[in-house]
């Protein structure tokens, strides 16, 4: 009969949703942890940034706001909400690149401060 789902089809659909939800939870959790490291590193480098302290404060605040945004997404997913997997992966990529950039900026800050 068209339009009628068998029990196996419905079960497979729910298994797919659960797997996707778990993948999204892991992705957002990793993003939160990496974003936290990036924000802490940015804040700790504030003392090195003597000549451009105001700009570094803005970068640090932006990183903490990005962290808050990821935490809200994580809370939403753990409450059973759905999150776009592409958005989750992009958030993880942004977190990784921010952390790598901040680690790389240490030498720049030390030589130009």
From TrEMBL:
Keywords: Membrane, Transmembrane, Transmembrane helix. The chain crosses the membrane at residues 22-43, 55-77, 89-109. The keyword Membrane applies. This is Uncharacterized protein. It comes from Methylocucumis oryzae. The lineage of its organism: Bacteria, Pseudomonadati, Pseudomonadota, Gammaproteobacteria, Methylococcales.
């Amino acid at each position: 009969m068209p339009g009628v789902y068998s029990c196996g089809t419905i079960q497979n659909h729910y298994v797919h949703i659960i797997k996707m939800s778990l993948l999204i939870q892991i992705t957002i959790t990793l993003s939160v942890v990496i974003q936290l490291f990036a924000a802490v590193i940015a804040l700790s480098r504030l003392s090195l940034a003597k000549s451009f302290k105001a700009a570094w404060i803005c970068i640090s605040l932006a990183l903490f706001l990005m962290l808050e945004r990821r935490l809200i997404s994580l809370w939403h997913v753990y409450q059973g909400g759905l999150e776009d997997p592409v958005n989750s992966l992009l958030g993880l990529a942004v977190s990784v690149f921010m952390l790598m950039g901040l680690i790389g900026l240490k030498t720049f800050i030390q030589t130009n401060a």
